Structure prediction request, 85 residues.
Amino acid sequence: MDRADTDSRIREQIAPFNKKGVTITDGTTFQGDLEFDSLTVMDFVAAIEDEFDIIISMNQQAEIETYGQLVDAVHKQRPDAGTTA
Prediction:
């Protein structure tokens, strides 16, 4: 799975949380642009963890501020990262 595939799957997961219909780019921020509160972040992270069968630690969550950073972090944790399907 390449980064584009990871991006596509995360876009599917973020859609229900994007209540204001913000255009998602790599620079989109969760707190500022999407206005996610702490509960929304927790729900969204749980959805991502379930979708990709990974764990995003609290330390990682604290460092991830933009959509692009999330895609990169998830992609790096994928067991098949760097391979093409």
About this structure: The CA atoms of residues 1 and 37 lie 30 Å apart. The helical segments are 3-14, 38-52, 58-63, 67-77. The mean pLDDT is 92.
